[in-house]
Records
---
Amino acid sequence: MAETENIFLFVPNIIGFARVVLAIISFYFMPTNYIIATWCYVVSALLDAVDGHAARYFNQSTKFGAILDQLTDRIGTTCLLATLCIFYPAYAFWLQLSMAIDIACHWIYLHTTLLQGKTSHKFIDMSENPIMSIYYTNRTVLFIMCAGNEAFYASLYLLNFTEGPTFASVGIFRLIAYLSAPIAIIKSAISILHGYVSCINLSIIDVKERQSKLKDN
């Protein structure tokens, strides 16, 4: 009898656990110590790329690892935004809205993808759109979008403590916030599009299941 693999001890999943620990440390220090919080948050985010390479190198890709990555990403961003709600109460509504869009649209997108099973021509595939195709297939574009989104919220966090080094009489963190704001807005718009298309695809699944039940009856 073949020995059962312990996927929890796979290298990419161990890296994933390290990401969780670093994220928790970051959350603890976010309100008081921006240096520790920032370093832990950034290292946790960078390890997201490392565990992907490790999964391919060691041939240890798992569904658990993929879900762990997604949850760590979503929770990390959500907790950062929760802290920003405390720092910038006047903008709490928009920060809460950003959290809601991020969580809801990612959740329904992943859930619908699992329910779809095999790819069907009847489902809406956003990768057929030339603009969305670039988003899905070009790693550089995807990295810029994700990094830009994180940079926007991270710079807002840092601005509560310091402007950072100045460049052309403007604090570097403020400059990053200005430059990355459009990326964060576009990223939220893409998330909304994901959510909308996922709702359409979920309705297709519902209709097919209802038709199947009616036939059986």
Note: Confidence is low (pLDDT under 50) at residues 118-122.
---
Amino acid sequence: MLARTYGLVRFEKLNIKNMTASAKGTVEQPGKKVRQKAGLNRAILAQGWGLLRQRTEHKAPGRVEDVPAPFTSLRCSACGWIEKKSRKSQADFVCVSCGFTCNADENAATNVAAGQSGFPRPRRLAGAGGTTAATGRSSVREPQPSRVGIPLS
């Protein structure tokens, strides 16, 4: 159904192997919270993320795309600004640049759906009057959802 409904299906390229690595430590000196980490690893592996992506590729060959995972949860889906301070909590996202507010998972999903890789742009310090020295434009910007590539309706 997913492959027939949409022309392109995007997945966040997660490194599942690294995510499910065992907790550090040895038999003599085990690491902290080893049992909890083992439970988390089981839960991640039980979801079958890799298998879902693989089967989607079989159902829709050539229409599956991977989006790099870094910074997808820190990028504002409205203005594209990447800032660690925008992620207020596990659930809340408030952009420090444009003030856009939404659920953090919805923001990340919007970025993945739009194919927004999370590579940060170079930072410029604001000069006097709130303008950036390099471009002379105002550093206070309104949200620009058209840049994300997802129509709002």
Note: The helical segments are 2-5, 16-19, 34-47, 49-59, 104-113.
